[in-house]
Amino acid sequence: MKKPSIADSVFCAPGAQIVGDVTIGERSSVWYNAVLRGDCAPIVVGQDTNIQDAAVLHCSQKAPTIVGNGVTVGHAAILHSCTVGDHSLIGMGAIVLDQAIIGKECLIGAGALVTPRTSIPDGSLVVGSPARVKRMLTQEEKEQLRENALEYLSLSQEAMEEK
For this UniProt entry, which segments traverse the membrane (predicted)? Predict the structure, then answer.
Protein backbone atom coordinates (compact mmCIF):
# COMPACT_ATOMS: atom_id res chain seq x y z
CA MET A 1 0.00 0.00 0.00
CA LYS A 2 1.25 3.48 -0.85
CA LYS A 3 2.05 5.97 1.88
CA PRO A 4 0.25 9.31 2.25
CA SER A 5 1.82 12.46 0.80
CA ILE A 6 0.92 15.32 3.12
CA ALA A 7 2.24 18.87 2.68
CA ASP A 8 4.21 20.20 5.66
CA SER A 9 1.71 23.03 6.14
CA VAL A 10 -1.23 20.63 6.69
CA PHE A 11 -2.77 20.42 10.16
CA CYS A 12 -3.72 16.87 11.17
CA ALA A 13 -5.61 16.79 14.47
CA PRO A 14 -5.03 14.03 17.01
CA GLY A 15 -7.10 10.98 16.14
CA ALA A 16 -7.24 11.72 12.41
CA GLN A 17 -6.42 8.59 10.39
CA ILE A 18 -4.77 8.98 6.98
CA VAL A 19 -3.64 5.80 5.23
CA GLY A 20 -2.74 4.63 1.75
CA ASP A 21 -2.61 6.62 -1.48
CA VAL A 22 -3.69 9.99 -0.05
CA THR A 23 -2.33 13.36 -1.20
CA ILE A 24 -3.16 16.51 0.78
CA GLY A 25 -2.29 19.99 -0.53
CA GLU A 26 -0.82 23.01 1.22
CA ARG A 27 -2.60 24.60 4.20
CA SER A 28 -5.38 22.03 4.31
CA SER A 29 -6.59 20.51 7.57
CA VAL A 30 -7.87 17.14 8.73
CA TRP A 31 -9.74 17.39 12.01
CA TYR A 32 -10.41 15.07 14.95
CA ASN A 33 -11.30 11.48 14.09
CA ALA A 34 -11.61 12.08 10.36
CA VAL A 35 -10.62 9.07 8.23
CA LEU A 36 -9.00 9.29 4.78
CA ARG A 37 -8.46 5.73 3.57
CA GLY A 38 -6.76 5.46 0.20
CA ASP A 39 -6.39 1.69 0.19
CA CYS A 40 -8.44 0.94 -2.94
CA ALA A 41 -7.81 4.04 -5.10
CA PRO A 42 -6.23 7.48 -4.65
CA ILE A 43 -7.66 10.28 -2.55
CA VAL A 44 -6.54 13.77 -3.56
CA VAL A 45 -7.33 16.80 -1.39
CA GLY A 46 -6.46 20.25 -2.73
CA GLN A 47 -5.08 23.33 -0.99
CA ASP A 48 -6.84 25.28 1.77
CA THR A 49 -9.44 22.52 2.20
CA ASN A 50 -10.78 21.40 5.57
CA ILE A 51 -11.95 17.89 6.37
CA GLN A 52 -13.89 18.26 9.60
CA ASP A 53 -14.37 15.98 12.59
CA ALA A 54 -15.45 12.39 11.89
CA ALA A 55 -15.67 12.86 8.10
CA VAL A 56 -14.84 9.77 6.02
CA LEU A 57 -13.18 9.81 2.59
CA HIS A 58 -12.82 6.43 0.88
CA CYS A 59 -12.89 4.91 -2.62
CA SER A 60 -13.99 1.88 -4.52
CA GLN A 61 -11.46 0.20 -6.79
CA LYS A 62 -13.12 1.86 -9.77
CA ALA A 63 -12.70 5.56 -8.99
CA PRO A 64 -10.65 7.97 -6.85
CA THR A 65 -12.00 10.58 -4.45
CA ILE A 66 -10.94 14.07 -5.53
CA VAL A 67 -11.60 17.16 -3.42
CA GLY A 68 -10.72 20.58 -4.84
CA ASN A 69 -9.19 23.71 -3.35
CA GLY A 70 -10.90 25.73 -0.63
CA VAL A 71 -13.49 23.03 0.06
CA THR A 72 -15.24 22.53 3.41
CA VAL A 73 -16.20 18.92 4.20
CA GLY A 74 -18.51 19.13 7.22
CA HIS A 75 -18.57 17.02 10.35
CA ALA A 76 -19.40 13.34 9.73
CA ALA A 77 -19.80 13.80 5.97
CA ILE A 78 -18.93 10.82 3.75
CA LEU A 79 -17.26 11.15 0.35
CA HIS A 80 -16.89 7.91 -1.61
CA SER A 81 -15.23 7.75 -5.05
CA CYS A 82 -16.56 11.18 -6.01
CA THR A 83 -15.27 14.56 -7.18
CA VAL A 84 -15.91 17.84 -5.35
CA GLY A 85 -15.17 21.12 -7.14
CA ASP A 86 -13.26 24.09 -5.74
CA HIS A 87 -14.87 26.27 -3.05
CA SER A 88 -17.77 23.92 -2.40
CA LEU A 89 -19.20 23.00 0.99
CA ILE A 90 -20.37 19.51 1.87
CA GLY A 91 -22.75 19.86 4.83
CA MET A 92 -22.62 17.92 8.07
CA GLY A 93 -23.66 14.30 7.65
CA ALA A 94 -24.04 14.58 3.88
CA ILE A 95 -23.13 11.54 1.77
CA VAL A 96 -21.71 11.82 -1.75
CA LEU A 97 -21.47 8.47 -3.51
CA ASP A 98 -19.53 6.82 -6.31
CA GLN A 99 -18.71 8.82 -9.43
CA ALA A 100 -20.90 11.76 -8.40
CA ILE A 101 -19.47 15.08 -9.54
CA ILE A 102 -20.08 18.17 -7.45
CA GLY A 103 -19.37 21.38 -9.37
CA LYS A 104 -17.50 24.45 -8.15
CA GLU A 105 -19.06 26.73 -5.54
CA CYS A 106 -21.80 24.29 -4.57
CA LEU A 107 -23.47 23.90 -1.20
CA ILE A 108 -24.56 20.35 -0.42
CA GLY A 109 -26.97 20.65 2.52
CA ALA A 110 -26.56 18.81 5.80
CA GLY A 111 -27.79 15.23 5.58
CA ALA A 112 -28.14 15.24 1.79
CA LEU A 113 -27.62 11.99 -0.12
CA VAL A 114 -26.00 12.51 -3.52
CA THR A 115 -26.55 9.26 -5.38
CA PRO A 116 -24.00 7.54 -7.67
CA ARG A 117 -23.17 9.19 -11.01
CA THR A 118 -25.10 12.37 -10.17
CA SER A 119 -23.66 15.54 -11.73
CA ILE A 120 -24.30 18.79 -9.87
CA PRO A 121 -23.83 22.06 -11.82
CA ASP A 122 -21.52 24.82 -10.56
CA GLY A 123 -23.10 27.19 -8.04
CA SER A 124 -25.93 24.89 -6.92
CA LEU A 125 -27.72 24.58 -3.59
CA VAL A 126 -28.45 20.86 -3.17
CA VAL A 127 -30.65 19.33 -0.47
CA GLY A 128 -32.57 16.17 0.34
CA SER A 129 -32.39 12.41 0.04
CA PRO A 130 -32.03 11.74 -2.78
CA ALA A 131 -30.35 15.10 -3.27
CA ARG A 132 -31.83 17.56 -5.75
CA VAL A 133 -30.77 21.00 -6.93
CA LYS A 134 -33.02 23.44 -5.07
CA ARG A 135 -31.73 26.64 -6.70
CA MET A 136 -28.59 28.47 -7.73
CA LEU A 137 -26.53 30.19 -5.02
CA THR A 138 -26.36 33.97 -4.85
CA GLN A 139 -23.01 35.72 -5.14
CA GLU A 140 -23.18 36.47 -1.40
CA GLU A 141 -23.70 32.78 -0.63
CA LYS A 142 -20.75 31.83 -2.84
CA GLU A 143 -18.58 34.31 -0.96
CA GLN A 144 -19.71 32.73 2.32
CA LEU A 145 -18.44 29.34 1.09
CA ARG A 146 -14.98 30.87 0.70
CA GLU A 147 -15.26 32.52 4.13
CA ASN A 148 -16.05 29.16 5.74
CA ALA A 149 -12.89 27.65 4.28
CA LEU A 150 -10.81 30.67 5.36
CA GLU A 151 -12.17 30.37 8.90
CA TYR A 152 -10.94 26.79 9.12
CA LEU A 153 -7.61 27.81 7.61
CA SER A 154 -7.23 30.29 10.46
CA LEU A 155 -8.26 27.70 13.06
CA SER A 156 -5.78 25.18 11.70
CA GLN A 157 -2.93 27.70 11.75
CA GLU A 158 -3.72 28.52 15.39
CA ALA A 159 -3.75 24.81 16.24
CA MET A 160 -0.38 24.28 14.53
CA GLU A 161 1.15 27.15 16.51
CA GLU A 162 0.01 25.51 19.76
CA LYS A 163 1.90 22.31 18.93
Answer: none
Buried b (16+ CB within 10 A) or exposed e, 103-131: bbbbbbbbbbbbeeebebebbbbbbeeeb
What is the reported pTM? 0.97
Asked, as a colleague might, if the bond just before 64 is cis with ω within 30 of 0, I would say: no
| CA terminus-to-terminus distance, the chain | 29
> Which CATH code of 2.160.10.10, 3.40.50.150, 3.90.660.20, 3.30.450.180 fits the domain covering 5-162?
2.160.10.10
- Domains of the chain, by residue range, sit at 5-162
CB 27 within 8 A of CB 10: yes
C-alpha span between 49 and 29 (Å, rounded): 6
d(CA 55, CA 162): 23
